[in-house]
Amino acid sequence: MQTITSKDNELIKHIRKLKDKKYRDESNEYVVEGVKLVEEAVKENAKINKVDNAEFICGDVEFAFDELTTRTYEIPTHIMLEIARYECISVSNKIFNIITQVTNPQGIMAIIEKNAQDAQIDYTQDIIVVLDDVQDPGNLGTILRTVDSIGLNQIIVSKGTADAFNSKVVRSTMGAIFRIKIIEVENLVQEIKKMKKHHFKLMVTSLQTKNSIYDIDFNKKIIIIGNEANGVSKEIQDMADEKAKIPMLGRTESLNASVAAGVVMYEYVRQKLSK
Fold this sequence. Notes:
Elements: H1 10-17, H2 21-27, E1 29-33, H3 35-43, E2 56-58, H4 77-83, E3 88-90, H5 93-99, E4 108-113, E5 127-131, H6 137-149, E6 154-158, H7 167-173, E7 181-185, H8 188-197, E8 201-205, E9 221-225, H9 234-237, E10 242-244, H10 257-274
Parallel strand pairs: 2-3, 5-6, 5-9, 6-7, 8-9, 8-10
Antiparallel strand pairs: 1-4, 2-4
Helix pairs in contact: 6-7, 6-10
């Protein structure tokens, strides 16, 4: 197959436009990049959109080699055997460096079709994690990864939350993006009211309480994580059934949003394992 060397190639223009959220929404696609994410996409049966019957876009090297770039990135044999089942469309390293969104590209990417998201919330789970305008892509990706690690299959996000298919978010999830249902809602207040009708109680972290997260029973709880700068909105704070704080021994008053989310979620895990 001929190597693509022009930035005006239609595929190259399409990949470059996928950096924009509006275009990702219109095309219902996003890009995954790097060996780890490509491996996860294959393992989780993500819908990889083919280009000229090829699943992957690769740097200008032989795909059967043990390296995908001039950086001599060693690929584990089991990954090579899995990925080698698929076709790869070749682009020059110069062009790959134009379309990549990482500092140290590994020479492989794929275009993934977004899953048709079922907007129905699963009320059979013990807890529901909700994000109220979490805007940092790294925080969102880390929270998605944590949600996946504790055995949940969904997350509820407000309209003002960062786009889950932003390249930084996708990389931060380390593959969790393929396993978590992301439900974006127009009106978070109304959705929380619906959750409460299913016998879930809203827990908000707050410094203005003596209660610790270790005093909370994490059964049928809505765990809400607020905006990095402003926290949980006042309207939602006023809906809280319980407020609790994360105990801290030092002088820092608050934690990064993704760290706080992890601490709270793993208290749920501790309680679940102790039963």
